[in-house]
Amino acid sequence: MVQETYITETRSAKETFALGKKIGKNICSGAVISLKGDLGTGKTVFTQGVAAGLGIEEPVNSPTFTILQIYEGGRLPFYHFDVYRIGDLEEMEEIGYEDCFYGDGVCLVEWADLIEELLPEGLVRVTIEKDLDRGFDYRRITIEGLEVQRQDEQGV
């Protein structure tokens, strides 16, 4: 297994969702995904895709006011954090972030750069950027730290 940086482009919310879903289908237990992007870049759409890939069927919305939403209906527990409104790091301790970050589920943290010092090593970093010159729905998505198996490691 090798960790690589993967850069892709999507041109619709449907494509952004599909990318998240592909990651959700293949992500392992204990993974933490940091999600960075300006307002309106599609972080929630991407997150909904990850949840769908994990087999979660209930509606997934951004937990802006509750900070954490827990979904247990998929193949792994899914912990969806939105730390945009976090006042200080003690709030993260109060909600028990360590149990989520170091547990058996999958964590996805929107606005993760606001709690950078709490994030574990080995996380997957996803950055979503838009470029209006390339179209309203255009997104450039950079994924760092995702483990991939190369063909030569598969014996092919």
Give the N-terminus to C-terminus distance in angstroms: 14 Å
Number of beta-strand segments: 7
The residue-averaged pLDDT reads 89
CATH architecture: 3-Layer(aba) Sandwich
Share in helix: 10-25%
- What spatial form do the alpha-carbon principal axes imply? globular
Low-confidence sequence ranges: 149-156
CATH fold naming: Rossmann fold
**Overall CATH class:** Alpha Beta
Question: How many separate helices?
Answer: 4
Name given to the CATH homologous superfamily: P-loop containing nucleotide triphosphate hydrolases
Structural class: alpha/beta
* Biggest sheet character: 7 strands, mixed
Order of helices and strands: EHEHEEHHEEE
Tally of discrete structural domains: 1
Beta-strand content? 25-35%
- The neighbouring-strand order within the major sheet is 1-7-6-2-5-4-3
- Cα-atom Rg, whole angstroms? 15 Å
Structure description:
With 156 residues, this protein is of the alpha/beta class. It has a single domain (2-150), classed as 3-Layer(aba) Sandwich (Rossmann fold), CATH 3.40.50. It has helices spanning 13-26, 43-53, 89-94, 97-101, and strands at 2-10, 32-36, 68-71, 78-82, 106-110, 124-130, 139-148. Strands 1-7-6-2-5-4-3 form a 7-stranded mixed sheet. Helix 1 crosses helix 2 (43-53). The chain is globular.
